[in-house]
Design goal:
Layout lengths: L2 H9 L22 E4 L7 E3 L9 E2 L2 E3 L10 E3 L1 E2 L3 E8 L8 E5 L3 E5 L33 E9 L2 E2 L5 E3 L1 E7 L2 E9 L15 H13 L4 E3 L7 E9 L5 E2 L6
Antiparallel strand pairs: 1-16, 2-5, 3-4, 4-16, 5-15, 6-17, 7-10, 7-16, 8-9, 8-15, 10-13, 11-12, 13-14
Length: 248
């Protein structure tokens, strides 16, 4: 069974398993995917202020660029509720390689140079930061392309904004399952984009996200030149749309 068929099945809600084919990179986006960054450098990202990004793009690869405050993340124009998320990345040869995939701006799947570590924690690659360490250390050494496939189910809130059902993440990393239905509730990190370096643009997104459980995905600036390519999202419901500032 091909990865395209598997992801197409997931979009229809079929099957409970999630075994994406990560054996050969880059992976071809499946039918139904919204491409956030393609191999020509076309992208659907904005700055944290809602304007043009300043991360350099070359040959379809975008490089995380810091403003020295760790507040220069990029945010997708696409907003979604539940989805499968695909991200390929390359760690720098020097430094910790710290970055992350911030889903809905609240929950971070950690990017970090954890290569060779015997014991991994919530700080390491493949962790759901603040909630769940990776099941295994699947990190490759710097200089080799790596891949996340993340199945995200958003928390459910009642009409008062209280979480009544926790969200879940199942994630595959370089061919190994590193999260298996990990649960999470209210965001824990004091450094997520809606709390640290937030802008009027993000404030509007945050308020809408809490009401609708839909939101963007961020690629994180944490002071390290991590490279990204081939980023896409496959929504698994009909809630996805491209957000326009001022839209209710």
């Amino acid at each position: 069974m091909t990865v395209a068929l598997l992801l197409a099945m997931s979009a229809l809600g079929a099957g409970s398993d999630f075994p994406p084919d990560q054996s050969k990179l880059p992976v071809t986006p499946p039918k139904g995917a919204t491409i956030l960054l393609d191999d020509k450098g076309n992208h659907k990202f904005l700055s944290m202020a809602g304007g043009a990004i300043d991360w350099p793009i070359e040959n379809g690869v975008i490089t995380s660029t810091s403003n020295r405050k760790n507040q220069n993340h990029i945010v997708s124009k696409l907003h979604f509720k539940d989805a499968d998320i695909h991200v390929e990345f390359l760690l720098p040869e020097k430094g910790p390689g710290n970055s992350g995939v911030y889903i809905h701006g609240n929950y971070e799947v950690q990017v970090f140079n954890s290569y060779g570590k015997e014991k991994v924690t919530q700080d390491d690659a493949g962790a759901v930061y603040g909630f769940s360490p990776p099941l295994v250390n699947a990190c490759r050494k710097p200089g080799e392309w790596q891949v996340f496939d993340i199945r995200y189910r958003a928390p459910r809130r009642d009409d008062k904004g209280t979480i009544v059902e926790k969200g879940t993440i199942t994630a595959w990393y370089n061919g190994q399952k590193v999260q298996d239905g990990a649960t999470f509730g209210e965001p824990k990190s004091t450094f997520h984009p809606f709390r640290f370096g937030n802008t009027p643009y993000l404030d509007a997104i945050r308020d809408r996200q809490k009401k609708t459980m839909t939101g963007p995905v961020f690629l994180q600036d944490h002071g390290n030149p991590v490279k990204f390519r081939n980023v896409w999202v496959v929504p698994v419901d009909d809630k996805a749309f491209e957000y326009e500032p001022g839209k209710k």
